[in-house]
Automatic annotation (TrEMBL), chain A:
InterPro entries: Bact_solute-bd_prot1, SBP. Residues 23-52 are annotated as: Disordered. The keyword Mitochondrion does not apply. Keywords: Signal. Residues 25-52 have a biased composition (Acidic residues). Residues 1-18 form the signal peptide. The keyword Signal applies. This is Extracellular solute-binding protein.
TrEMBL record, chain B:
Belongs to the binding-protein-dependent transport system permease family. It is a multi-pass membrane protein. It is found in: Cell membrane. Keywords: Cell membrane, Membrane, Transmembrane, Transmembrane helix, Transport. Coiled coil: none annotated. This is Sugar ABC transporter permease. Pfam families: BPD_transp_1 (PF00528). Residues 69-282 form the ABC transmembrane type-1 domain. PANTHER family: ABC TRANSPORTER PERMEASE PROTEIN (PTHR30193), ABC TRANSPORTER PERMEASE PROTEIN YESP-RELATED (PTHR30193:SF1). PROSITE patterns: ABC_TM1. The chain crosses the membrane at residues 12-38, 73-94, 106-124, 154-178, 211-233, 266-290. It comes from Gracilibacillus caseinilyticus.
Length: 444, 298
């Protein structure tokens, strides 16, 4: 019995060893292959000038399928023109993206080029995860056709930590057919929050939703700006308004919209499987409050055509600002910062590349690209350009970027909005809770 | 002596990969997270010692934490017993001699194979959608459709149903346990005129009790650590109204979304403690209901 066990074990060991050495052998040979390739490559690059050096760049972005598709095409275009550069894309949806980025940052493994959002820019920049792009601007990144204002959108402290990929402005995208059914042949030139509620009521009476609600972190900030305040204090250490009545007024209105049926209930919205199910897309709602670059997508998935209207007043110009839609940042741990800057330059300034991008990442910051695109873009995109040009004239400076911790504050206020909509908490209590918790998040 | 050394060397060599993996991916992270749980650590800057503050904050200043703890308890205490009951019923059905039994065993085990996967959770989203199978079935029975993703309680139950549906692994273990009960017991009972339920409660349950204990412990531990379905079904939010914000999901959010790694580590240690306490309670009660043959029925 014992003997046979030993024999069995012995056999297993031999098999295992054989398997191991086989693996080892393979690894060794393949390792050798790689090594020889590498040396060959190095030889090449040493022979040639630095422009031909083999470079591998990792680039990460968030978005939906159309954005993934065209971004991959832009990358292909770049690789064709720069045969020495290989680009490894890493893309995800918004939620997954940030959850993937955090551990990568902690491990100093951030991709060379990282798409950044305003709400996270400070967090990553202040923690020394991102490289200051200032030394590259004017050299690797051509800024001749880009306004200083647009570049400053990516400023944190004294450095530029994200390069603005395009600008956005808040807007109301409405269905003109439904509006005329409600008795408005033209959208009111300057509408106020009171008129907003009046038109909403008409929509309800006619059997329509008016909108999909006002996303708390975005529109509460807009509302505060209209009143001369901001969501965050200029130095980011706390909230930028003192009077909780502003919070109460805004969210009371939001709550009334849900109660009157002008905005779908939160449980209805949660049940929607995707943007295709959206009441506005299905012609059951008048319009939708969102960023200007989302207009084209809205027209794409719905059968109807939409129009632009500004957000409700008064003091629209105080409330509106041009927001960098998103940035490309270069990570501090990248060993190819210059090559990364070159790619960003291509992305921003190359007309051919932008014919693929077509303003999906906001209206291009380069005036040359913008002019070149005007003849290329679809009717829908032209409306976006037109609106952003109007907003440029009718807006005020954005101010300091969102502070570190903004991501958490946004989740907090969106959660409170949800609770208000479900009737779980009164706007008054929510105002107090928001103040205490947000101050403690930002104070850290 | 020399052969001894040599033999030992071989031993170390063979155990090496496991030891290295165990150290690198289990022991060191455990020690590190224990240290982090007493610090304020944002993943970027070095951890700052704060003592017990994380633990204090959890129970005194974080209503969301208490809420996630509550729904996790509901999830575990509703889900695990139902899942075990289901597994046992199916195992007994499959224990009968029928020609198609092999096929059914495979079919019933399948959901567990693809268990924690993203695909299942996505499918679940469709099944429970507005026009999903579940709502169609409810309507055909004259019951109003439920907004599974819009109602926090319903959303939690949807997660519980998902966990019940994945009963395959406990079912297989039950099946093995059932097979080991000697047929002669049942035959003797039949001769004495015992009914099905008498046989079930006097033979099956006692004979199966060690297996039940094993399953109960393993499933409880597993249920506490549920993450993937809650994450996918709520699209990472834990919503609506935090109705599906299971403990691990909140822990993940704290660590990787809000950059509170110290707090997340503290949460992990509290979870360990809770699981340890629950497991010992199950073990302590087990001597009243678990029957080991080798101990002469004690």
């Amino acid at each position: 019995m014992k003997k046979s066990l030993l024999v069995l074990l012995g056999m297993m060991m031999i098999l295992w060893l054989a398997a191991c050495s086989g693996d080892g052998g393979n690894e060794e040979t393949s390792g050798d292959d790689n090594a020889s390739e590498e040396t060959a490559d190095n030889g090449d690059s040493e022979g040639a000038e630095s422009g031909d050096e083999e470079v591998t760049l990792r680039i990460a972005w968030w978005g939906s399928q159309p954005r993934h598709d065209y971004t991959l095409e832009v990358i292909k275009l770049y690789e064709e023109q720069h045969p020495n550069v290989t680009i490894e894309p890493e893309y995800a949806s918004w939620d997954d993206y940030w959850q993937k980025l955090a551990p990568q940052a902690a491990a100093n493994e951030l991709p060379d080029i990282v798409q950044m959002d305003l709400s996270y820019l400070s967090q990553y920049a202040e923690n020394n995860q991102l490289a200051d792009l200032s030394p590259f601007i004017g050299s690797n990144i051509d800024d001749t056709n880009i306004s200083q204002n647009a570049i400053d959108g990516g400023k944190v402290g004294d450095g530029v930590y994200g390069f603005n990929l395009g600008v956005n402005a808040l807007s109301f995208h409405y269905n003109p057919e439904i509006m005329s059914e409600l008795g408005y042949d033209e959208f009111p030139e300057e509408w106020t929050w009171e008129e907003y509620q009046e038109i909403s009521q008409k929509a309800v009476d006619a059997g329509y939703y008016f909108d999909n609600g006002l996303k708390a972190d975005v529109f509460f900030n807009y509302y505060l700006r209209q009143n001369g305040k901001r969501l965050y204090a200029e130095d980011g250490s706390g909230l930028g308004y003192e009077d909780d009545q502003l919070f109460v007024d805004f969210f009371k209105m939001v709550q009334e919209q849900v109660e009157s049926g002008a905005t779908p209930t939160p449980d209805f919205l949660a049940q929607l499987a995707g943007p295709e199910d959206d009441p506005v897309v299905k012609g059951e709602g008048v319009g939708i409050f969102q960023w200007s670059n989302q207009f084209v997508g809205l027209e794409d998935i719905s059968e109807s055509s939409f129009e632009f209207a500004p957000t409700p007043g008064p003091n629209v110009d105080q409330g509106l600002f041009l927001k960098p839609s998103m940035f490309f940042s270069v990570s501090e741990n990248s060993e190819q910062k210059e090559a990364a800057a070159d790619f960003i330059n291509f992305f921003i300034n190359d007309v051919e590349a932008n014919k693929l991008i077509l303003g999906d990442r906001g209206v291009p910051v380069s005036s040359e690209v913008k002019d070149a695109l005007l003849s290329e873009v679809s009717e829908a995109q032209a409306k976006v350009f037109e609106y952003v040009a109007w907003a440029e004239e009718n807006s005020t400076a954005m101010g300091a970027p969102d502070p570190a911790g903004a991501g958490e504050v946004i989740e907090l206020i969106d959660g409170l909005q949800e609770q208000i909509a479900y009737g779980e908490i009164s706007p008054e209590d929510a105002a107090t809770q928001f103040r205490t918790q947000a101050e403690s998040i930002l104070g850290n | 002596m020399q052969t001894n050394m040599k033999q030992n060397l071989w031993g170390y060599l063979f155990i090496g990969p496991f030891v290295i993996g165990f150290l690198a991916f289990t022991i060191i992270p455990i020690v590190a997270s224990f240290y982090f749980s007493f610090t304020s650590y944002d993943l970027f800057n070095s951890p700052r010692w704060v003592g017990l503050q994380n633990f204090k904050e959890m129970f005194t200043a974080d209503p969301r934490y208490l809420h996630s703890l509550k729904i996790t308890f509901i999830y575990v205490f509703a889900g695990v017993p139902l899942r075990l009951l289901f597994a046992l019923i199916v195992a007994m059905l499959l224990n009968t001699a029928s020609r198609a039994v092999g096929l059914y065993r495979t079919l019933y085990y399948l959901p567990s194979l693809i268990g924690g996967s993203v695909a299942v959770a996505i499918m679940w989203r469709n099944i429970f959608g507005d026009d999903g199978v579940v709502n169609i079935a409810l309507m055909s029975m004259g019951i109003d459709p439920v907004r599974w993703f819009g109602d926090p309680t319903a959303a939690l139950w949807m997660l519980i149903f998902l966990s019940i549906w994945q009963f395959g692994s406990s079912m297989l273990i039950f099946l093995a346990g059932l097979k080991s009960i000697p047929q002669s017991y049942y035959e003797a009972a039949s001769v004495d005129g015992a009914s099905f339920f008498q046989k079930f409660f006097s033979i099956t349950i006692p004979m199966l009790s060690p297996v039940i204990l094993f399953n109960a412990v393993m499933q409880t531990i597993g249920a506490f650590m549920t993450f993937v379905p809650a994450f996918i079904i709520s699209k990472g939010t834990g919503g609506p109204l935090d109705g599906t914000l299971l403990y691990s999901l909140y822990l993940f959010k704290q660590g990787f979304e809000f950059f509170h790694m110290g707090y997340a580590s503290a949460m992990a240690w509290v979870m360990l403690l809770i699981i340890a306490i629950l497991t010992s309670i199950i073990f302590m009660t087990s001597r009243f209901w678990v029957h080991y043959e080798s101990e002469g029925g004690k």
